Amino acid sequence: MNELLYGVAYYDEYMPTERLETDIAMMKAAGINLVRIAESTWSTHEPQNGVFDFTSVDRVLDAMYEAGIKVIVGTPTYAVPTWMVREHPEVLAETPKGLGRYGARQIMDITSPVYLFYAERIIRKLIGRVCAHPAVIGYQIDNETKHYHTSGPNVQLRFVKYVREKFGTLERLNKEFGLDYWSNRINSWEDFPSVVGTINGSLGAEFARFQRGLVTEFLAWQAAIVGEYKQPGQFVTHNFDFEWRGYSFGVQPDVNHLEASKSIDIAGVDIYHPSQADLTGKEIAFGGDSTRSLKGANYFVLETQAQAFPDWTPYPGQLRLQAFSHVASGANMVEYWHWHSIHNSFETYWKGLLSHDLGPNPTYNEAKTVGADFRRLSPQLANLRKTNRAAVLVSNEAYTAMEWFPLPGRKFNYNDVVRLMYDALYELNIECDVINASEAALDKYDLLVVPALYAAPDELLARLNEYVHNGGHVVYTFKSGFTNDNVQVRSVTQPGMLSEACGIQYSQFVEPNNVTLKGDPFEVGAEHNQVHTWMELIEPTTAEVLAWYDHPHWGSYAAVTENRYGQGKATYIGCFPSAAVASKVLERAAKAAGLWGADQENQFPLIVKSGVNDNGRTVRFYFNYSDASRSFVYPRQEGRELLAGDSVATGQRIELARWGFVIIEEG
Amino acid sequence: MNELLYGVAYYDEYMPTERLETDIAMMKAAGINLVRIAESTWSTHEPQNGVFDFTSVDRVLDAMYEAGIKVIVGTPTYAVPTWMVREHPEVLAETPKGLGRYGARQIMDITSPVYLFYAERIIRKLIGRVCAHPAVIGYQIDNETKHYHTSGPNVQLRFVKYVREKFGTLERLNKEFGLDYWSNRINSWEDFPSVVGTINGSLGAEFARFQRGLVTEFLAWQAAIVGEYKQPGQFVTHNFDFEWRGYSFGVQPDVNHLEASKSIDIAGVDIYHPSQADLTGKEIAFGGDSTRSLKGANYFVLETQAQAFPDWTPYPGQLRLQAFSHVASGANMVEYWHWHSIHNSFETYWKGLLSHDLGPNPTYNEAKTVGADFRRLSPQLANLRKTNRAAVLVSNEAYTAMEWFPLPGRKFNYNDVVRLMYDALYELNIECDVINASEAALDKYDLLVVPALYAAPDELLARLNEYVHNGGHVVYTFKSGFTNDNVQVRSVTQPGMLSEACGIQYSQFVEPNNVTLKGDPFEVGAEHNQVHTWMELIEPTTAEVLAWYDHPHWGSYAAVTENRYGQGKATYIGCFPSAAVASKVLERAAKAAGLWGADQENQFPLIVKSGVNDNGRTVRFYFNYSDASRSFVYPRQEGRELLAGDSVATGQRIELARWGFVIIEEG
Amino acid sequence: MNELLYGVAYYDEYMPTERLETDIAMMKAAGINLVRIAESTWSTHEPQNGVFDFTSVDRVLDAMYEAGIKVIVGTPTYAVPTWMVREHPEVLAETPKGLGRYGARQIMDITSPVYLFYAERIIRKLIGRVCAHPAVIGYQIDNETKHYHTSGPNVQLRFVKYVREKFGTLERLNKEFGLDYWSNRINSWEDFPSVVGTINGSLGAEFARFQRGLVTEFLAWQAAIVGEYKQPGQFVTHNFDFEWRGYSFGVQPDVNHLEASKSIDIAGVDIYHPSQADLTGKEIAFGGDSTRSLKGANYFVLETQAQAFPDWTPYPGQLRLQAFSHVASGANMVEYWHWHSIHNSFETYWKGLLSHDLGPNPTYNEAKTVGADFRRLSPQLANLRKTNRAAVLVSNEAYTAMEWFPLPGRKFNYNDVVRLMYDALYELNIECDVINASEAALDKYDLLVVPALYAAPDELLARLNEYVHNGGHVVYTFKSGFTNDNVQVRSVTQPGMLSEACGIQYSQFVEPNNVTLKGDPFEVGAEHNQVHTWMELIEPTTAEVLAWYDHPHWGSYAAVTENRYGQGKATYIGCFPSAAVASKVLERAAKAAGLWGADQENQFPLIVKSGVNDNGRTVRFYFNYSDASRSFVYPRQEGRELLAGDSVATGQRIELARWGFVIIEEG
Q1: pTM of the full predicted structure?
Q2: In the complex, which subunits touch A with 3 or more CB pairs below 8 angstroms?
Q3: ipTM, interface predicted TM-score of the complex
Q4: Which domains does chain A show, CATH number per domain?
Q5: Touching check for C598 and chain B: CB below 8 Å?
Q6: pLDDT the model gives residue C147
Q7: B563: part of which helix (H) or strand (E)?
C-alpha cells in the first residue's frame, strides 16, 4: 500500500436514475480513490436460481477502472434472495425466538448446506468473473458476519458432538458444568437437551463459544474459496464490527475477532460513533486499536459514517477530524458507508456522503478537502507503524460469562468495564493495543490493563502472574479471575490464582449503596468518589491499600490495592469506580511502568497519537475534540506541520480550531 | 332528522335481573329517545350453528316502540360465537403475532369466506326480522371495524395479486420499492415472500394500504346486504374510531375513513376523551370535524363516555358541556356507551350512565337535564350547518409512512403533528374541517394546514402548489413532501415539489439538542422557544424567513419561512416547534387569509363554535373549558340565549360558570 | 419437638471436591443440627429411566447420623431429568406462552400421568430406602409447588368437567360469568374454548382457582405416598412460599396455602427478605404469621437466606437478629438455603452460609453464635405458643380478581393493600394471625383487618357482618365486598352486604389526583395526608365520618368511616391512604378493641414479640431493627434476660445495640 485509500460503498443497483458517470465525476472531485461494491445484492446478480446477471458489476468495474478508482468486490452472501427462501425455507436460521422469517438480512443458518451450496456458487461465479479485472484490488468476504443465533436441531447436533470431542465423557461434562444442579445432569448422550432453554451458564457459555467457532469456520471457508481466484497483489479482507449500542461500543460478543481474522489478509472494521457534541474519538480509537492488534498491522476502515442519522450529521470540521483520527490509529483506508443516501427501505435515514438529492452538500464539500489531503500526504501518512507499550486485554469468554451472571441492576455489562478502562487510557493519551485474552506475547508491553476477566483458564492467570513476576505491570478490575474457562467459580479464595500476584483475598462481595472511598484518596472530589454496582470485601495479604471503603460496617475492607510481586506490580480495583478514579489509578500505574511522558502533558479533549512512517520519521497528531478552540505547547522535536506546511519548533504554542488538528512530522 | 337524538347502547342480554320496564322508565325520565342494540351478542342470537333466538331483540324493540324510543339495530358481526371457532378455527385471523386465540372480540379474518358466510346469514336473519318494526330507524353495520392485522397466507395471496394489478411488472415494483436493497428483489411472482417479515417500508406501507382496502370492502359488503332490507327513511351508519391512546387521539391508522364511509348513509363516530381536570373538548372537536367532513353533513356520535373509568367520571357540569359540544360541532346524536355498567368481564370498569347498582346517581341525574334541553331545543339545534374556511389535511399514507420511518426517539408520531396543528387552531377558535389528502375540493378553503405530509403522490403536491398559486394559504410542517406515494424519498432537493410554492430548499436535517429560535421571533418566552425532535436545515430561495435557528453551527439555516407564490402564500415550519410557536405561526397565516375576527377575541379555555340552523339563524356556542368561572364580552349580533331564554345584546358581558356554556341564537 | 432446629440445605452432589467430613465438622462447629437433602437431584438419583443410584443419599445419611445431625429427606420431584423429557416431551407443561422447553426446574405438567408415574416411582424408591434410617426425622414433599401455569388441552378438558360439576348448567355458567358479553356465551359444552385467550375475568379467575386446586391435589397425592412409609415420630412438611418480588412479598397467588396444608403434618415456609439497611423483619413476621396460622401451631422455616445476594449479605448482627425473629414468631426451625455457595449455574450468586471458597467467613462465624444460643436456649424457646387477638384476613380469590381488574396504573396489586395494613400492625407491635378468607373461627379475634376483599361469597360477608354484630371490630379497605365469588360485581349499592355493618354506601369511584383528607384529621402532616390510586365516593348512612376528601367537586364524600353495628364496630377506608394514615386508623380501631397496651409503648424499629413456652412462662423479645443503638423502658413483669442471663426489673431501661435484641422470660 503506497497511498491512503479514501473510499465509499457504492450501489449502482440502488440508484433511482442512471447516474454512474455523474457519480464518478463527483467522486473524483472528492478524491475518492476506492469503492466497495456487490456485497449486498445477491438477488440482483442471481435473479433466479442459477440465472446470473453481473451487468451492474461489469459496468461499474469498467467505469471505475477508466476513472482510476480502485474496487473492492464483496461476496454477496449476507443477504439471501427470495427465491432461495421460497425453494428452501430451511436456510433460515432457527433461533431461540423460533423459525426465521424472510425480510431482513443475516437471517440464514450459516451451517446450512443448502445455503452453503448456493453461496459457494455465487462466490465462484462473481469472483471468477472479476478477479482478473484491473480495477479490482481485493475482496471483502461477506459482511459483518455473525452466527445470527442459529440454534436449530442440526446446530444442536453438531454442538453435542463438539462437547463430546472436547470433554470426552459426560462425567467430566457434568462435573465441570455442575449439571447435577436442579437435575440438569445428562447421563446419556442421547438425552442431551436443546441448549436453547438451559439455565446453566457454563453450558450456555460453551454454546456461545461454539457459535463463535461457526463464524470462524464460515469465514475461513469463504476465504479459501476466494483465495482460489485471488491474483498476486490482491487481498482478502472482512469488516468486523462491535457490540452495537446504536453505535460501535465494545467487544463483539458473537465473533472471536482474533480467531476469525486468521483466514484473511488485512483486518477490516466498521466503526460508527456518536457525533456532533458527543464526538470524542473514543470509538475510532478503540475500534482501530482492536483491529490493528489483530494482525499487528495497518487496517482498513471499511465502513464509517458520512452524514448518517440526524444526530450524526457532522458539525463543520468533524468529518476531517474523524478521517485523520482513523489514519492516526493506523488505518490505511477510510471508507464511508456509503456514497449516496437510499430512497427506500430500512436504511433510508442512514445517509451517505450525498443526501437524497444526490447533489453537493456541506458534508460532501468537506470530504473534498479530506480527499485532497489524503492524496497529498499519503507519502507521509500511509503505513504508519505504531508500537504501543500498553495494552488492554479483552475476552469473549468474559463477556459471555458476565451475560450469564450479570452485574446487579443489569445496567452495565462487560464492555462497560472495558470502556471504563480503555477510555481512561485514551483520555490520558496513553496509546494502547487491545489484545485478545489468548494473546501469548505479553512481554512486549510495560502495562497491561485487564478489565473484568471474569472467565479465564488457569493457564492465562498463571501467565499473567508470571508477566508481573518478570517485571510487568497489571491493573485488574473487580470480577477478574472469579471463574475458570468453564464458568465454574473457583473454589479457592478469590480472586483465585490472581491472589498471589495481587497480594489480596476476598470471599464476600456486596452491592454498594452510598459508599465512597475513605478520605477521597485520589482527590477526585465528592461527586467522583462514589463507588457503585459492585464492591468486593478485600483483605490485603501483602498488598498496599490505595483506598478503603467508607461504610459503617465494611470500612475495614480494601477497595483498591497495589502489590509488588517479583519485578513487577499488580494493581487491583475491587469495585466499580468513577471514571475519575479509574484514571487516577491508571495514572499511578502508568507512572510506575514508565509510561508517563510528554504526551501526558495534554489530556482529552486534546488527543495525541503518533506513529512512524515509511520514511522512518515519527508523525504526531494533535486533535482538538471539542467545540472550542484550544492551544497547547508542542513538547517534541522540531518538525513540519503537514497540513499547512509550516515548520514547528519545540516549545512552540500551537492553536487548534474547534474540532481542528495538526499533524507534525518530526525532523 | 327533526330532533336531536340522545341515546344509549343497551344490552338487555347483559342484565343481571329482569329490568326492561325499569330501564325504560329511567330512560324516559332522562330524555333518552334512542337506543342501539344487538351489535355485540351474536352468540346469544345464534346460540348454535343455524339456531336463532331473537327473543331479546324482539322484546326490546316492542318495549322501546311502546315507550317512543327509537332503535338502531347493529349487525352482530364484530364478535364471533364459540361454536364458529370450534367448528372452523380458520376464521381467526393469522397475524404477525401468529395464529389467533379465541377470547377477545375483533379477532377474525374479515376476508374468510367461512366467516363471511355466517356473518351474511346472521345479518339477513336479524335485519330481515327487524326491518319492518316501527321502532327501527336505522342500522349500524359492524362495530369499529378494522382489519385486525389479518395477514395469513390467503391474505398474502390476495395482496400479491393486488400489487400485480397495481404495478403491472415486477421490474416496476422492484424499482418503486427499492427492492434491490439488501437483496430483497423479487424476480418471479412465485417468489413473493410474506410481507410479515419485511423491512422494506414501501412494501409494508403498500400492505397497510391494501389492508385498509379490506375494511372498505368489508363495510361496503355489509352495507349492501343491509341495504336490501332498508326501508324508506331508515339509514345505515357505522361508528368509525381513531388512533387509540387510551382515548380517541388522531387519525385512525387502519381505516381510510373517507373511502369506507362511501357505502354508508350517515357518518358515525366513537369519541372518548380525557375528563375531569383534563377535559379540553379537543377530541370532541377533532372527532366531530373529522366525521362531519366525511360527507359534509351532520353526523352521529354513536359512542361516547358517560362515567366510564375512575379518571373519566365527570365533574358536575361536564356531561352537559360535552353533550352540547358535540352538537356545536354538528352532531345530531349523542349516544352513551352505555346505559348500565356491566357486572362481569373486560369492560366492568367502563361504566355507563348507571353504575353497577342500576339506580340513579349524580351522572344520571345530570343526563336528565341534557335530555330535557335536547328535547326542548331540537328545533334550534338539530341539523346545524357548518361552513368552515379552514381545513386540516390528513393522510393515512403519511401516518403509515411515518410509522415505518419514525421521528427520532419514537416519542411522537404523525398524529402528534396533526394534533399540534389542530389543537392550535382549536385554541384560537378557528373552526375547521379535517379533510382527507385525496379530497379534491380545496378551493372552498382560505387556509389549509398540512401537517407532516410525509408520503404523497406528485399529483397532490401539484394540486397544493396550484391551490396556493390561485390565492390559497397553506401552512406546512416539517417532513411534508419528502416521499412519494410509494414511500420513496424524492431524489430532488427537499421538500420536493413543495419547494416551488414554499420558496425553500434543504438537503440535510438534524436532531435538535438545546436549539431555540433566534431572538424569540414569536415572543413566546424561553420556555416555549425551544425546538425539539427534528430540524431541517432550510435555505430560503424566494421565501422570507420568519425564524432562524439559534445554534453554533447551524445558525445560518431557517426554521420557519413564508413565501408569496402567485396569489397566495405558503408557510413552512421546518422543525417540531412548541404549541405556542405553532399557534403564533397559525395566527399569522390566519390573519393573512382573512380568518381573524370576533371569535378570536377569546381563546381556549373559552371555546366558540357556531352553525346555521334549520331556521337559517346563526347559533353561537360559548363553552368554558375550565374549572373556574369566566366571563366574556359578547361581540356578535343581538340574540337570545337558548338555555335561559334571556335576550343578549352586542357588547354584553356574559358570565360562564366553571364547565358552563351559553347558546345564543342570533336575531 | 424439644429443641430448636438450626439447619441447612445440603447438596453433597454439587460439591466440587470430596468434602463431607469437612462440611460436617464445620456444621457441628456452627451448631447445625439439621440438614435437608435430596429434593433437587432426581437426575443424580435416577440417571436413566429405572436405574437408581442413591449413593450420595446413603453416605450423607450415615455421616449425619454419626455426627448427630438430623435429616429431612425431600422428594426430588420438582426438577425432572433430561431422559424423561427426551422420552416423553409431553411431560412439559403447555402454558399460555406455548409448549415448554427443557432447562429450568418446575416446568412439568403436574397432572401428566407420565410425570406422575415416574414421580411416584422415585418417591417410593427413595423414601422406602431411607424411612427406617435413624437420621431421618421427616420428609419435605416436593419444593415450592405451584401449577406452573399448566393449561394444555388435557388441563382444559379437566377444567370443563370441573365447571360442569360446579355450575351444573351452561345457563347458570353464562349468567354468573356474564358470558353474553362480547359474544362469549357458550351454548354447548363441546364449544368450550380454551381459557388461555379469555378476556372474561370470572372465567379466568375460576380457572386460576381450578389451577390452585391442582396444587392441593398434587401435594395430597405425594403426602399419601410418603405417608405409607412414614415411621412413628416422623413428619411430612412442605415449603410454601409467597408472591415473589425479588423477595417474599405477600399472598401466594398460585396456591391456596390453607387447603394445600391439610395433607401435611407441619407447615413449612420459605422466607427471603431485603437485608442490610432495608432489613425490617416485616417479611419474617408476615411469612411466619401466615404459616403459623395454617395449622395454629409452630412451623418450620425450611429456607431462608444466609448471605445470598450482594445486597443481602448481612451486616454484622443481622443473621442473629433474623434467626431469633423467626423463633419469636413461633418457628421451631431456621434452615438456611443453603450450606455452601454453588460454583455453576443459575443460583451461583445466591450464596449459602459458606462462600465459594468453602472456608469460614464473617457470616458463618456469626451463625456459630446462633447455633450455640439455639442449643442453650431450646428449653425456653422451642414450641412457643402464640395467642393473638388480631388477625388479617387474606384471600386468593381477591388476589386473582384484582389481577383481572387491577387498580389504575397497575403500580399496586392486592398484596400491596395487604402489606399496607399488615405492616402498619407490625410497626405498632400488634401481633396478629394471617388467616384465610375461608377461616370459620373469627370469634377468637377482637380485631379483624380485611384488606381489599374484592371477591367474596355472600356467606363470608354475612359472617363478617355477624362478627361485628356480636362485638367484633373490623377494619376494611376500599374494594372490599365489590364482587361475589364469581367475580361478578354486586348489583346493589356498594360495598354490597358490608354496607349494613359499615353504615355507608357508594356507587361511584374515581382516581384521586392531588386529593388530601380534609383538615388532616389524623394529624399525619401534609406529606402523608395524600390519598392515591383509588377513592370511593362514600356517603354515610349511619356511619360516623372520620375523614372527608378535600376536593373541589368531591368534598362532600367520605374517605374513612366508622360505624357501630350491634355490639361491634366496622371501620371502612374508602381510598388508598398513606402508611401513616393506615396506622392511625388501626390505632383507633385497636384501642376500641382493647388491644392497646404495653407493647404499643414502643413502635418500629423497636419490635416486640412474645409467646408462652413449654414451661408456661411468657417470653418477650425486643428487637432493634435499625442501624443505631436504641434503648427502651421494660414495661412488663420482672424476668430474666436469656442471652446474657441477667435479671430484668419492671421499668428498667434496656440498651439495644444496632440490630441487637434481648429475650426476657418473665417470672
Answers
A1: 0.97
A2: B, C
A3: 0.95
A4: 5-77+110-147+234-381 (3.20.20.80), 390-594 (3.40.50.880), 602-666 (2.60.40.1180)
A5: no
A6: 98
A7: strand B558-565
